[in-house]
UniProtKB/TrEMBL annotation:
One GO MF term attached to the UniProt entry: triacylglycerol lipase activity
Cellular localisation: Endosome, Multivesicular body membrane; Prevacuolar compartment membrane
Protein's UniProt name: triacylglycerol lipase
Fungal lipase-type domain mapped to chain residues: 243-281
Subunit (UniProt): Binds to both phosphatidylinositol (PI) and phosphatidylinositol 3,5-bisphosphate (PIP2).
Membrane topology summary: Single-pass type II membrane protein
Lineage: superkingdom: Eukaryota
Length: 423
């Protein structure tokens, strides 16, 4: 039995049309350091229940004392002219639509991803998406943080999409923190969401329905023999309303209803980071994703139209993480042993890559995937401290993944249609 929600919050708020009224600009350069820092506090918990319903609840007043300071900058992004237009483009596969047909350019505040403490704060918010506020693994950034927890959405029978909502003091900016895969072998200690987390991992990041070998049980019926996979079947497998991407879209609509004038930022770790990126690609909002598996393949299969620029999406990961690097695959990998077909490696947007293998001597190891390691061992100090009068860098310089190809040894086509025609 869910508790009664405050009157200001409503269930099942799914507007049919996203209206965007952006400020048009001509200059395509990033405008840095023209917006003040934001102070965020925890406002709501969100969770998925009974299929794809997104539910909200206020957190206890004792948690409102916790504050998270995030520096911002102004960036230029491309948003769909309306959600209806975006949905039509997906349905008709019009990925080649021109800016005039779909995209509208605007200038919006975004996290300053070249500021280490901003990344650190977002990473702590992301870590906390795995835990109730009273859990010992929760990062409390302020001594006045309470010990009570508001359990809405975290009961044993709540087995789906989870996260938290942080809002700035004046409600001008809202951060959605989306939980990633819960599993004792990665982070989060397992729990009731593990089964659906694993299903989404294997749908979004495998080459063909998690068909790694003949002993695997695939998550969809698209394998067509050899290294052949039916493309239409794959696309249809991602249309289920309970798929976490569709839930994330529903969540975004709910939040924009609750905060109609706020700028929305999205963050997440692992699966949560990939879902954050797909949400940002859909709505043109800023994203910071930590240690996420490659989601570019999933975006293509979801027929997400590609905007002229995706620099509003930033992936932060290190070279010792086999999941983010796209090398946790093959029948002998730890991912495969755990039943996860993490076969994609290409990311959307820009990348801030920490070379922990070269600089820190880390071995490539699934245990380095944990967001806690990122918080405490990667983001805890400047990457290149200032020395001998030389200017260092707070974080590695953002870059791009060049010549990245997913599933190059697979052939995709209408194999099931051809087989039916031959009968």
């Amino acid at each position: 039995m869910f508790p009664v929600l405050p009157s200001a919050l409503r269930l099942l708020l799914t507007p049919l049309l996203l209206i965007v009224n952006p400020e048009l600009v001509q200059d395509q350069t990033v405008l840095r350091n023209v917006s003040p820092s934001h102070i965020f506090s925890l406002r709501h918990e969100h969770a998925i229940a009974n299929g794809s319903r997104v539910l909200f609840a206020d957190v206890s007043q004792s948690y409102l004392a916790e504050q998270h300071v995030v520096n911002s900058r102004m960036i230029q992004t491309y948003r769909p002219s309306s959600f209806g237009a975006f949905s039509l483009a997906r349905e008709t596969y019009l990925n080649g639509m021109t800016d005039a047909d779909l995209w509208v350019q605007s200038t919006i505040p975004a996290p300053d991803v070249e500021h280490r403490e901003t990344l650190l704060t977002l990473a702590k918010m992301t870590n906390n998406a795995y835990y109730a506020p009273a859990d010992k693994e929760w990062y409390a950034l302020d001594p006045s943080w309470g010990n009570d927890s508001y359990p809405f959405g975290w009961e044993p029978d709540a087995d789906g999409f989870r996260g938290y909502i942080f809002a700035s003091e004046d409600n001008s900016t809202v951060v959605l923190s989306i939980k990633g895969t819960s599993g004792g072998w990665i982070v989060g200690g397992g729990g009731p969401t593990t089964k659906k987390d694993k299903l989404n991992d294997n749908l979004l990041f495998s080459c063909c329905c998690a068909r790694v070998g003949p002993t695997w049980s695939p998550v969809c019926d698209c394998y067509s023999g050899g290294y052949k996979c039916d493309q239409t079947c794959l696309q249809n497998a991602l249309t289920d309303e309970s798929l976490f991407y569709n839930v994330a879209v529903n969540l975004y609509h709910n939040v924009t209803y609750l905060y109609p004038d706020a700028d929305i930022w999205v963050t997440g770790h692992s699966l949560g980071g990939a879902l954050a990126s797909l949400t940002g690609a859909t709505f043109g909002v800023p994203v910071v994703a930590f240690e996420a598996p490659g989601e570019k393949l999933a975006a293509s299969r979801l027929h997400l139209p590609s905007p002229p620029s995706t620099l509003h999406i930033t992936h932060v990961y290190h070279t010792a993480d086999p999941i983010a690097m796209g090398v946790c695959n093959g029948v002998a990998s730890f991912c495969a042993i755990g039943g996860y077909a993490m076969e994609s490696k290409c990311h959307i947007g820009q990348v801030i890559k920490y070379d922990t293998v070269t600089k820190l001597g880390w071995a490539v190891d699934i245990r380095t995937h944990s967001i806690k390691r990122v918080v405490e061992e990667v983001l805890s100090e400047d990457w290149e401290p200032t020395a001998d009068g030389n200017l260092g860098r707070s974080v590695p310089e953002p870059g791009y993944e060049e010549d990245c190809v997913d599933c190059f040894n697979w052939e995709f086509g209408d194999f099931k249609t051809k087989s039916s025609d031959e009968l």
